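Q&A log
Question type: sequence-to-structure
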Amino acid sequence: MRKSGLTGDEAYILSKHGKTTEDLGPLKKEIGKIKEDLSNKITKFYASNQGEVHIADSDNGKIQDMMLYGKSSQFTTTGKNLANGQNINCFINSVADTCGISSNDIGMVIDVSKLTNVSISTRSIQDRYRFACANTVPTKGNPITCYNGTSKDGTKDSYTMDTTGYNYLFINATKLEDIQVEKGSESTSYEPYTGGQPSPSPDYPQEIKSVVKPRVKVCGKNLLPFPYSNTSKTQNGVTFDVQNDGTIHIYGTASAATYFNFSTNIEWGSEDFSNTNEKYKLVGNLFYNANNKILSYVVRESVTCDFILKPMVVLNTETDLTYEPYHEQTVTLPYTLNAIPVASNGNVTIDGQQYVSDYIDVERGKVVRCVKREPLSKNGRLSSSSSPFYTYNLPSAKPKTITEVFVLCNLAQFNSITTSNSQIGISSDGSNSLRMRLDGYATLEQYTRLSAEIIYELATPQEIDLTSDQIQAFKSLATNYPVTNIEVSSDQLDGYTVFNYPISMQNGWNYVKQQLNDNRDYIYDMDTQSAEAYINSEYALALTELEV
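Response status: OK
Response body:
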């Protein structure tokens, strides 16, 4: 038999496609051409990541075209909770015992004289509350008239009371700040007390949170940070010898229960668990104590051991539990990325909500400001009408109609009806000026003393250059084979990122096959793909034309 000098892969490819060694000469010539072309055209197949934090089929390779978006949020209330959650020195004598309220109890009193019905509920089903109605404010020695003699413990449902004929409601509870009393006979979700008025307001400001100092962290499927909290140690007769890859050689006989702590002050879950919870899976018989936020491994008293522990924390959807050392790359930027939630015409959608958002374009090396955050200027003016508005011109703002969301403010809610008390709105002519009316604020001095802060959309985005070090740090971010996890956190809110990332060669080629309606099998080993591409020359040509 003639000696061919072929490798096993080459011989397999030729035999699979009915080729002989006679074809080897022209094959090698064409392979050289294909290799040269492929080196310029096909080095990686890329997919687009739109905010996913878990990439199940990633290849080792640089992340491309990263965009990092900001977000802003603000807690608001409707003012429905009438219970201020504060104790008063209210004493009840023994006549009230039929209501389950003992003498000398301390609670809070709510004026219900103008209400027909109220609904009482609690934020936590663990809380207990008791109540009674009275025609006068309960004081020591002044018996109250009980409402139907009922003592009510906090449950998931509410309790409705017809308050006709009563002036005051007395409530005693385990945690008064968790009690909600509202108008009407239907209980709704809990919100804190804000003076019976919507918030944000001057008396109940609400902070606007944004993406402050964003951190982009890229790691593999193993989410357990290394080095661990504990280092190598010998304790109670047991040695924990930590290896460079994160595995631990554990040997010895325990004279007492002995713990090795992997992480502290990391939120792996809200409850203790040893296998899996709603988000994570622990590999290696680890245990998470939610009370002290410690993830650990324990060797029980009198147990003799000699083995290699391969600890991991992975997402609970992960099925491949083969050990992988911890890999991490982190880039932190000293910027704040703000945003305004809008109904339409936003530049990014996050969890179904559109935003006009600041963003970082890594490819261009720019921080792009689409909104501006600033204190409310003292250079505004007060209208001369009988219902004074504080008016502030925003020369760089994007003009909006009166019905469009224009600003976020820490002291007032946006409302297109600017005559409404304690609201913030836009002037009716649609110009880029802000009009604020706050009930009880009638002079320019009163308005200018407010610590008001606003975020508004810019007419023309403003750009800031990233430094060369920052650009290089981002462009060095790489995915991990076969699983990559992405986290965009910050000092306040999590950010949002989109980018292109390399996927496995097999999935990339399968995608191209799908476009060509090609059902044939191929070998995806990088050392032999050129020969395979030559034998299927029309396939290689299609790949080249697609410029994948």
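Response note: Residues 24-41 form the longest helix (18 residues).
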